[in-house]
Amino acid sequence: MSVKERDPLTGHQTTGHEWNGITELNTRVPRAIWLFIAITHVWALVYWVLMPAWPLVNTYTKGLLGRNQQEQVEERLAAASAARGEWVDQVAALTPDEIRADDDLMRHVSRTAPTLFGDNCAACHGSGAQGGPGYPSLVDDAWLWGGDDETILETLRVGINAPHPESRYAEMLAFGRDGLLDRAQIETVVAYVRSLSGIGSGLTPAAMEEGATIFADNCASCHGEDAAGSQDLGAPNLTDDFWIYGSDHDTMFETVYNGRRGWMPAWEERLPLADRKMLTIYLSSLKEEGEHAD
After folding, report:
1. Residue 41, annotated as binding a ligand
2. Of 9-13, 94-98, 203-207, where does mean pLDDT reach its minimum?
3. Is 278 within any annotated ligand binding site?
4. CATH numbers and ranges of domains, the chain
5. Fewer CB near the terminus (10 Å): N or C of the chain?
6. Tens digits of per-residue pLDDT, 235-261?
7. Is the CA virtual torsion 139, 140, 144, 150 positive or negative?
8. 51 among the known binding-site residues?
9. 121 labelled binding-site residue
């Protein structure tokens, strides 16, 4: 019978294999490891007996404790909904000013409104509500339809150029595409309009007069004789530095030539009244913060 070789330093048996002077030991697995494995197996068996574990053809083993995580989640969601319903009902019944006067409600609104905005509005207006080309900024005071609580709430309800029967409607004519103005006239009126907001026009006095005439005949009915716009029509002010699509020459030429027709969904069927009121309060606060920053 062969005698097993032992390592002189550790006393452990070797496998008999050696590589470049390195001997492979046949060290036993520590008892603590075997104990751990045994405990985990026992725990698994106990868990299988007590808790839902094994899928069957049409059901699963329910376990002796009868625990159901789906039911637990549904119960917790129902409890959260009930707790939320108490203050949400109050928000729906009060005006924005009354909500602002209630510190408890405002704590809920302050936590909930940013999430509502992020989920429903940020895709177009940006996470900071600063807008972008074709999407208005909500942190300034250039609101096409008005920025008071009542107007914001109504705009959220019916949308702009939306399928809602009471939707706000605003569309700028395509003066070039539809042949209402030729290219030379468009160039002239674009330069004139840019001059109204302090952007250099480079027009001669005669061309400025022609631009003013073209504007009066084609644009003033919506934007006003003073080009200050009309919130009743959703027509923007052309004398400030707030431009939804851009104020450079090429963009403005495109605007006059092909027209513009913005769109915003109506949220009446998508968001309950309480959510729309919370968004109104949140948007008003963003607008005020933007005005103070300026």
Report:
1. no
2. 9-13
3. no
4. 1-66 (no CATH), 73-154+270-293 (1.10.760.10), 171-258 (1.10.760.10)
5. N
6. 999 999 899 999 999 999 999 999 999
7. positive
8. no
9. yes
